Automatic annotation (TrEMBL):
<keyword id="KW-0269">Exonuclease</keyword>
<dbReference type="InterPro" id="IPR043502">
    <property type="entry name" value="DNA/RNA_pol_sf"/>
</dbReference>
<dbReference type="GO" id="GO:0003887">
    <property type="term" value="F:DNA-directed DNA polymerase activity"/>
</dbReference>
<keyword id="KW-0238">DNA-binding</keyword>
<keyword id="KW-0234">DNA repair</keyword>
<dbReference type="InterPro" id="IPR008918">
    <property type="entry name" value="HhH2"/>
</dbReference>
<dbReference type="InterPro" id="IPR029060">
    <property type="entry name" value="PIN-like_dom_sf"/>
</dbReference>
<comment type="similarity">
    <text>Belongs to the DNA polymerase type-A family.</text>
</comment>
<keyword id="KW-0235">DNA replication</keyword>
<keyword id="KW-0227">DNA damage</keyword>
<feature type="domain" description="3'-5' exonuclease">
    <location>
        <begin position="311"/>
        <end position="483"/>
    </location>
</feature>
<dbReference type="InterPro" id="IPR019760">
    <property type="entry name" value="DNA-dir_DNA_pol_A_CS"/>
</dbReference>
<keyword id="KW-0540">Nuclease</keyword>
<protein>
    <recommendedName>
        <fullName>DNA polymerase I</fullName>
        <ecNumber>2.7.7.7</ecNumber>
    </recommendedName>
</protein>
<dbReference type="InterPro" id="IPR002421">
    <property type="entry name" value="5-3_exonuclease"/>
</dbReference>
<dbReference type="InterPro" id="IPR012337">
    <property type="entry name" value="RNaseH-like_sf"/>
</dbReference>
<keyword id="KW-0548">Nucleotidyltransferase</keyword>
DNA sequence: CATATCACG
DNA sequence: ACGTACGTGATATGT
């Protein structure tokens, strides 16, 4: 398919000149406009892959328009010599790149473009017109799109007739009338004084055109009528001036505009001569790059591969004062850190952005006495800040002794809400998503893995400042999206406040009794060594017990045990398999025991010991708010959401989690059956609601209803089955899954499910409806409007589709439960603050909150915590939280 | 750097 | 007939 790009050469080089910092090459020539133009050109070629491409330039000084209006463009400043010099450079470069350029004596670039586009239109060819001039919108048509260049030359907005209608409710032709009425100071088109865009649009919506307006002034009154009548001539003339002349005699044929890619043989030397190293790199022409001579080369030295054009100040002592003066205008920041764990990472420096100016402040300067006002601003909760992962920034700054407050807008968090399944969207992903200038990937700037190295100040500062600048660009787009998806409230009133609360919990940390943990480790060590000796003896050989591969070899080849299950790579030896093998051979029980203890030793004793902070004697986990697709939190470094509890051996680990002050208690409160209560509410199932309204044991109640028996007839087996069915319901039930869990035939499981749905008809209806809903909308939501997209809900592949269906059933339940405990945390934080309590919230484990509490607050907290948790959100069934406490986390059971 | 296993809700 | 329960993170092997 033919595709023609028409570039308004004069307009773009002008924009590039004023948008780029005044950089020069080693020969002293200013090259900024050529550089800006070329980056934009390469980007267009990359993005649209045109088959035809031309750059049009104004030719000569006199255009036919002067004949009618002497002052045309008279208001425009004379072209500065620094720019004039770059015209021939650009034209030479375009020639060497192999990009056709047109100039026609007596005509301006837009007339050439208008005329070519008229011919292309007539031939039905696809055309993209690139310019910063809104006048060009008049050329939009079915096949012609106008790419309006914004923000320097780094962004374009595409306008077809439909976008013009959406934005102005005008046709492309009416753009001329709009200009005729409102004028354009930059082009010195007078228009009608006192008529701006708003009035002009109103008039055009009423009368359709300049002529219509002038004929219809009788219907108007007052000043407006007078103005229009007085300046009628000016309006008509302005319209004429704004009209792009589309009848330029073109001697060029379609073939003359053909573009078959960059001519690398000539482009290489030309770019090298201009010292555009990053462009050479981008075109894989680095072989042409001039040898390094140690001298900075303007745009290239500092700009690396980044294409954004920004005013960046690398702040030193000398610039600090100006930065501090500008703080009231700064709304975005980026704290550059290294490493994954924010409690251990170093702060490298911070980028700060106002809409006009961007700054980089290295850590050393940030910590210097002179930067005190800057630090005050960072810690000022009334100075709102936008950023990417502010929660992480807060922690990293905290350990540098710098307070952070005023997180107003975290773009990572917003991006997560807008699509929680998109894995870890980094800033660069977001620039791509929102069409912002690309950032160099961190790996390019810092190097990856062992090669990690902080680059020289200039490169570092530019990179980090670009990040904060990028944040500014992202914020606005996201706010609109959040509004459109009804998630503004969720973002502003829940997730943003929660991120600050999480940071407080993490800074606080939870104390770990190191000696007791080591003692426990010795016990485990002894058990492990006994087990290992026994196992080797029984097997008659020593091998690596931790290797499933070697273990499989022993069990299934040497001992000849039956193969129950296979993995991709060989025999499965997981606990489920070993349980089945236990009756065949005594060693299997020992292996299971070994696995249990070895897990506790490596993950929970050794792992936890490594995470105890030298500084505080505590473990400081890092909650991640943007990982789980359902809205849950996740916990890292260490994960404190999977500390053992089910088996007594492991549960002992909890004894080492203690209060950080003598005499205090650990208090834990967990929601009782929160997911099933949520299900009862969402589905509205009467029977299930009844169970919770009467505060019955839900699994017993389920067994009674499914098996049709009375409470005292429910035996432990029936209750166990009912419990499994309830779990299955929450997970998005399948007969196969239930059969696996209960170790029964699939048919039996299917029967169970059918019986369940016969009784809980409302639940069946919910399950059916939510899947239909997901199919129709493409997403499901929680009670607080948290959203999860399920693109695979309509997949042809049975597996993919089934998975999406189960997710559709599960996410509103798990997600709403997550919403509720998050709400409870916000309320709890507020309650502690307002009452001036010393008790501290330390941990969240999905349906549980853990606190440390001084003795004089214990009685109060025993009441307050469950009350706040139960009252977090009003459902059609009560929420219930059960509280317990003790001298450590184990005792709080 | 992927895979298997297992800890939690 | 299809073949899996939902959501996470840490550790150890072995490629």
């Amino acid at each position: 398919m033919d595709k023609l790009i028409l570039i308004d050469g004069n307009n773009i080089i002008y924009r590039a000149f004023f948008a780029m910092p005044p950089l020069t090459n080693t020969a002293g020539q200013q090259t900024n406009a050529v550089y800006g133009f070329t980056t934009m050109l390469l980007r267009l070629i990359d993005d649209y892959k045109p088959s035809h491409l031309i750059v049009a330039f104004d030719a000569g000084k006199i255009t036919f328009r002067h004949e009618g209006y002497e002052d045309y463009k008279g208001g425009r400043q004379k072209t500065p010599p620094e720019l004039s010099e770059q015209f021939p450079m650009l034209k030479d470069l375009l020639r060497d790149l192999g990009v056709p350029q047109f100039e026609i004596s007596g005509y301006e670039a837009d007339d050439i473009i208008g005329s070519i586009s008229r011919e292309a239109d007539a031939a039905g060819r696809e055309v993209i017109i690139v310019s910063g001039d809104k006048d060009m919108l008049q050329l939009a048509s079915e096949h012609t799109t106008v790419a309006l260049v914004r923000k320097g030359v780094t962004e374009v907005e595409l306008y077809g007739p439909q976008q013009i209608r959406e934005k102005y409710d005008l046709t492309p032709e009416q753009i001329i009338d709009l200009k005729g009425l409102m004028g354009d100071t930059s082009d010195n088109i007078p228009g009608v004084p006192g008529v701006g865009e708003k009035t002009a649009l109103k008039l055009l919506h009423q009368f359709g055109s300049v002529e219509g307006v002038l004929a219809g002034t009788g219907e108007l009154k007052g000043k407006m009528k007078e103005k229009l009548e007085e300046h009628a001539d000016s309006a008509v003339m302005s319209k004429k001036l704004a009209t792009i002349y589309r009848e330029v005699p073109l001697e060029h044929a379609w073939e003359d505009m053909a573009f078959s890619g960059i001519k690398t043989e000539t482009a290489g030397p030309a770019l090298a001569k201009l010292e555009f190293k990053s462009l050479l790199e981008r075109l894989s022409l680095s072989a042409y790059a001039p040898a390094a001579n140690g001298e900075g080369t303007g745009a290239e030295a500092s700009g690396a591969a980044e294409t954004a054009v920004l005013d960046i100040t690398i702040v030193g002592e000398a610039e600090l004062e100006a930065l501090i003066a500008a703080l009231p205008d700064i709304s975005a920041l980026h704290v550059e850190t290294n490493g994954e764990n924010p409690h251990r990472s170093e702060v490298i420096g911070i980028g700060l952005s106002s809409p006009e100016q961007h700054y980089f402040v290295p850590l050393a300067l940030l910590k210097s006495p002179a930067a005190a006002p800057l630090r005050d601003w960072l810690g000022d909760s009334s100075a709102p800040k936008s950023g990417y992962d502010l929660h992480r920034a807060d922690l990293a700054l905290h350990w540098q002794g710098i307070a952070f407050a005023g997180a107003a807008n975290d773009v990572q968090l917003a991006a997560y809400l807008l699509d929680p399944t998109e894995a870890n969207q980094n800033l660069n992903d977001l620039t791509a998503k929102y069409g912002l200038p690309r950032l160099s990937p961190d790996e390019e700037v810092f190097g990856k893995g062992a090669k990690y190295k902080i680059p020289e100040l200039e490169i570092l500062g530019n990179h980090v400042a670009r990040k904060s600048a990028t944040v500014l660009g992202i914020v606005q787009k996201q706010q609109q999206e959040l509004t459109e998806t009804a998630m503004t409230g969720l973002f502003v009133d829940l997730e943003m406040p929660l991120s600050r609360i999480l940071a407080d919990m993490e800074k606080q940390g939870i104390a770990v009794n190191k000696e007791d943990l080591k003692e426990l480790g010795k016990e485990f060590e002894a058990q492990i060594s006994t087990l290992v000796t026994e196992i080797y003896e029984i097997c008659g050989t020593e091998f690596n017990l931790n290797s499933p591969k070697q273990l499989g070899e022993i069990l299934f080849v040497k001992l000849g045990l039956p193969v129950v299950k296979k993995t991709k790579t060989g025999y499965s030896t997981d606990a489920e398999v070993l349980e089945k093998l236990a009756p065949y051979h005594d060693v299997v029980r020992l292996i299971l025991q070994y696995r249990t203890i070895a897990k506790l030793q490596s993950t929970y004793v050794e792992g936890l010991l490594k995470e105890i902070s030298e500084e505080t004697g505590k473990v400081h986990t890092f909650y991640r708010q943007t990982i789980a697709a359902t809205g849950r939190l996740s916990s890292q470094f260490p994960n404190l959401q999977n500390i053992p509890i089910r088996l007594e051996e492991g549960r002992k680990i909890r004894k080492v989690f203690v209060p950080s002050e003598p005499g205090w208690s650990i208090l834990a409160a967990d929601y009782s059956q929160i997911e099933l209560r949520v299900l009862a509410h969402i589905s509205g199932d009467e029977r299930m609601k009844e169970a919770f309204l009467e505060d019955m044991d839900i699994h017993t109640k389920t067994a009674m209803d499914v098996f049709g028996v009375t409470a005292d007839q429910v035996d432990s087996n029936m209750r166990r089955s009912a419990k499994a069915v309830n779990f299955g319901i929450v997970y998005g039930i399948s007969d196969y899954g239930l059969s696996q869990n209960l170790n029964i035939p699939r048919k039996e499981a299917a029967q169970f499910i059918e019986q369940y749905f016969e009784v809980f008809k409302g639940v069946r209806k919910y399950m059916d409806d939510i899947v239909l809903d997901a199919r129709k909308q493409g997403y499901v939501t929680t009670l607080l409007e948290r959203r999860r997209y399920l693109p695979e809900i309509n997949a042809k592949n049975f597996n993919l589709r089934s998975f999406a269906e189960r997710t559709a059933m599960n996410t509103p339940i798990q997600g709403t439960a997550a919403d509720i405990i998050k709400l409870a945390m916000v309320h709890m934080d507020k309650a502690l603050y307002e009452r001036g309590l010393k008790s501290r919230m330390l941990l969240q484990v999905h349906d549980e909150l853990v606190f440390e509490v001084p003795p004089d607050e214990l009685e109060l907290m025993k009441e307050l915590v469950p009350e706040v948790m139960a009252g977090a959100l009003a459902l059609s069934v009560p929420l219930k939280a059960e509280v317990s406490y003790g001298s450590n986390w184990y005792e709080a059971k």
